[in-house]
Write a structure and sequence with these properties.
Strand content: 25-35%
CATH architecture: 3-Layer(aba) Sandwich
Number of strands: 10
Order of helices and strands: HEEEEHHEEHEEEEH
Largest sheet: 7 strands, antiparallel
CATH class: Alpha Beta
Distance between the termini: 23 Å
Shape: globular
Helix content: 40-55%
Structural class: alpha+beta
CATH topology: Chemotaxis protein chec
């Protein structure tokens, strides 16, 4: 499979960073304080290679969103137990009932996934003249090894395409730092649009 050139990768990274900036504005409204979302790393590789994911001890929470429209793929937001608790503490700190906390945590994580995936997909759609949008998010809570197996099985089922890793750091005004893992499985059709964009515009 043909790899993206450095220039094509820079375009993808630039679009993602714009999406993160827009997502930060939406997240700031949700938590009612200024938020900055930084891209910690950027890597794109064939799905046949090892996906660079760090698995934490204990239960992990995964939210997946299928990419719909003229190109396909899936986004993945992966968080540890402590990151889910921190998000709930920032967004809804007054909830003390354990069951209500659990329900609220799941709702908040889904909303964060929706904000991130929608912001990035909007940038891809606008820049690449590509009609894409996110489907209904799906949430999974699994122990470390089961989560690892699920993600590896999901990527193994994709017979072509790329894994795009664009991990993030959330910096909140009240000194909270979160580093969820955010990555994508993109089909080759998606990447062909990027190649076409570079050839036409640069």
């Amino acid at each position: 499979m043909k790899a993206l050139t450095n220039q094509e990768q820079r375009i993808v990274q630039h679009l993602i960073e714009i999406g993160y900036n827009n997502a930060a504005s939406s997240f700031s409204s949700l938590v009612k304080q200024p938020v900055t979302i930084e891209a910690l790393c950027f890597e794109i590789a064939e799905t046949s290679t090892k996906v660079p994911i760090t698995y934490q001890d204990g239960n992990m929470t995964l939210v997946t969103t299928d990419i719909m429209g003229e190109a396909g793929g899936r986004s993945y937001l992966l968080l540890s137990e402590s990151e889910c608790s921190a998000l709930q503490g920032v967004c809804a700190p007054s909830i003390s009932d354990e069951e209500q906390r659990k329900v609220m945590q799941e709702a908040i994580v889904k909303e964060i996934d929706n904000i991130l995936s929608a912001a990035v997909l909007t940038e891809f759609s606008n820049a690449l003249d590509l009609h894409v949008f996110g489907g209904v998010p799906h949430l999974f809570i699994l122990p470390r090894q089961e989560m690892k197996g699920k993600i590896e099985e999901d990527f193994a089922a994709a017979d072509d395409g790329y894994c795009l890793t664009a991990n993030t750091r959330f910096l909140l005004e009240e000194n909270t730092q979160l580093q969820p893992q955010f990555f994508w499985r993109l089909t080759t059709d998606f990447l062909h649009r990027i190649e076409k964009y570079v050839a036409t515009n640069l």
